[in-house]
């Protein structure tokens, strides 16, 4: 009887997987917009192979991407590398044809927008600018287009611990809290996790929380941030010190519980932490290292304490893993090797957390961001 039930469940799961298409959106650094844009691939949910589906061309440096909750719209941080020239762009996605179409763009409030996040309502987009250390909020129209920024909050003072990198503030990402009532903003230049309250009904939705942040280790350079699926813990990859900090998150406040190396003991210089994500099952945390390493650090997460134990490192088979992501099921982990122009897909062992390469695409110009979403056929 049990065997029959399990067999039936397997058939149902297999059918559901076949009934979905897993699209992969690839942002990139393409300073000559005529070269490329945003590429769209299909991820085979069984094999991990990637097949090219479409290209939204002539997009300048769509370096970081995010998707609306309904999957219909995509937003990109588009760097210009000229003063006040950065922008945030919006696109509409047709999941039947697999085509992405540009809608409009608005100024970002800086030259180096590096991160965008979308509110659960789909009615707000938040952006972080690195060079000017500012955070911008945009209201979204019914057709997915962006209005001019409703708010731009700018910061100047850096920690000055590492003078050439921290003379001024550098906001590097902006992540909504699990309830979407706050935004966490790692500031690499200030060694601080800035915390903003977010009111989606307000014309200017962002306001500094009280207290307005959590200090990071001196000279660490906090970069990217991820919440645990249980919403009780959170993790930050620190670019300059090659470390990961673990936090408890309670009543809108962060409290430090651990700081752990993201690199093997034999690596002593050249740290360049980049991206960080927890697995959907909440059992493992992954962090990417560029610089002298080019690997993914793998940690087991203590279910009750949220603390981390390193269980291994996985080479990314490329150079400069600026960004990576996991598919919604947690079966695959995909890495963008920006300086070696490749995307590598790993299968994830759900019991050990370890990774094994299943496919690799080469010749993709400077991939910098990957987003995966399942769409019903």
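^ Assign residues to that structure.
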């Amino acid at each position: 009887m049990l065997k029959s039930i399990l067999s039936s469940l397997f058939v149902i799961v297999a059918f559901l997987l076949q009934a979905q298409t897993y699209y992969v959106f690839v942002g990139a650094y393409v300073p000559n917009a005529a070269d490329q844009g945003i590429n769209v691939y299909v991820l085979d949910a069984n094999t991990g192979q990637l097949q090219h589906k479409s290209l939204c061309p002539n997009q300048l440096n769509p370096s970081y991407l995010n998707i609306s909750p309904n999957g219909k719209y995509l937003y990109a941080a588009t760097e210009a590398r000229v003063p006040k020239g950065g922008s945030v762009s919006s696109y509409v996605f047709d999941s039947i044809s697999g085509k992405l179409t540009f809608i409009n763009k608005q100024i970002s409030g800086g030259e180096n927008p590096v991160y965008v996040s979308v509110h659960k309502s789909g009615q707000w987009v938040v952006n972080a600018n690195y060079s000017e250390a500012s955070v911008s909020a945009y209201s979204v129209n019914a057709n997915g287009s962006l209005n001019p920024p409703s708010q731009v909050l700018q910061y100047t003072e850096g920690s000055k611990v590492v003078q050439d990198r921290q003379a001024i503030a550098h906001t590097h990402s902006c992540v909504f809290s699990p309830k979407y009532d706050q935004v966490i903003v790692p500031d690499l230049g200030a060694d601080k996790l800035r915390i903003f309250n977010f009111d989606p009904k307000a014309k200017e939705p962002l306001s500094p929380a009280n207290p307005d942040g959590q200090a990071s280790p001196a000279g660490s350079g906090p970069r990217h941030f991820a919440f645990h699926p249980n919403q009780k813990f959170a993790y930050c990859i620190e670019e300059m010190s090659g470390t990961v900090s673990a936090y408890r998150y309670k009543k809108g406040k962060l409290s430090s519980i651990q700081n752990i190396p993201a690199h093997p003991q034999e690596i002593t210089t050249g740290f360049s932490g980049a991206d960080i994500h927890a697995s959907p099952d909440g059992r493992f945390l992954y962090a990417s290292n560029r610089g002298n390493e080019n690997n993914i650090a793998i940690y087991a997460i203590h279910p009750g304490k949220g603390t981390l134990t390193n269980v291994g490192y996985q080479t990314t088979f490329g150079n400069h893993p600026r960004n990576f992501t996991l598919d919604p099921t947690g079966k695959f982990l995909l890495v963008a090797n920006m300086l070696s122009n490749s995307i590598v897909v790993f299968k994830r062992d759900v019991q050990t957390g370890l990774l094994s390469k299943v496919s690799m695409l080469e010749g993709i110009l400077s991939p910098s961001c990957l987003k995966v979403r399942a769409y019903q056929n």
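Residues 8-13 have pLDDT under 50 and may be disordered.
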